[in-house]
Amino acid sequence: MFIEVTGLKKGYTTGEVRTEVLKGVDLQLEKGEIGVILGPSGSGKSTLVNIIGGVDRSDGGSVMVDGTTVTSLKDVELTEYRRENIGFVFQFYNLVPNLTVGENIEVCANISTAPLDVDQVLASVGLLDKKDRFPRELSGGEQQRVSIARAIVKNPKLLLCDEPTGAVDFETSRSILALLQRINTDFGTTILMITHNTAISGMANTVFRLRSGAVVERVRNKETLPAERIEW
Ligand SMILES: Nc1ncnc2c1ncn2[C@@H]1O[C@H](COP(=O)(O)OP(=O)(O)OP(=O)(O)O)[C@@H](O)[C@H]1O
Ligand SMILES: [Mg+2]
């Protein structure tokens, strides 16, 4: 297994109140596959993906990614793990506003040991002609494509996407999903994606439904749907 999450637990204490967010999550995904996590708001989706990506810590259980036990890494090792292996795509892009499109991608390429060519990545998301623009000069869908370019330029083994189509319209969503599918095919990148949209689950090899901090359903799709054929 490429991702192996076992009995993962995470809680928060605010004031006197303790909330258990993840109550023993189990999740497995094979290398090169697309996994989709569905679940209501507050069910712990982002918390789970952040722990897998090494930006948050668990309270118990374990996460293994490509043979590394992420949950037992020290802080320095965790930073390195994140830098070497993980690409993150967020709902609200998180681009640096005073850097151009090209520069936003370059800063990520620069911290990687084996980055892809910036222009080639920009071309693959269809934005080479916008390289010298600033994020504010782009549409929402274009900004999301820049954020995908930024995540893939370091050629990560694992691409984690938290509601990548949450802020764009139907047609733009489909083109972003098609782009993710193409990255998965072309680079063999394993993708784990959070969404509210059940229609998107047709793209996945495995669909995980999270409810109240646990995986309550797991569906394997025998065949996956090309993004172009997804309707909602
Ligand atoms: N830093 C924090 N401190 C306290 N509580 C937190 C913290 N981060 C998350 N939570 C709580 O944990 C729960 C799960 O949050 P999480 O962001 O993982 O949900 P989610 O499934 O991603 O929801 P959404 O679909 O709205 O993004 C929520 O009830 C949230 O309030
Ligand atoms: Mg979330």
From TrEMBL:
Q: Provide a Gene Ontology MF annotation, just one.
A: ATP hydrolysis activity
InterPro entries membership? AAA+_ATPase, ABC_transporter-like_ATP-bd, ABC_transporter-like_CS, MacB-like_ATP-bd, P-loop_NTPase
UniProt keyword annotations, A-Z: ATP-binding, Nucleotide-binding, Transport
Disulfide bond recorded as keyword: no
Q: Where is the ABC transporter domain?
A: 3-232
Residue intervals passing through the bilayer:
none
Q: Which domain of life is it from?
A: Bacteria
Q: According to its record, what are the GO cellular component terms?
A: membrane protein complex
- Alphabetical list of Pfam families matching this protein: ABC_tran
Q: Family per UniProt?
A: Belongs to the ABC transporter superfamily.
Q: What is this protein called?
A: ABC transporter ATP-binding protein
Species of origin reads Anaerotalea alkaliphila
Q: What is the lineage of its organism?
A: Bacteria, Bacillati, Bacillota, Clostridia, Eubacteriales
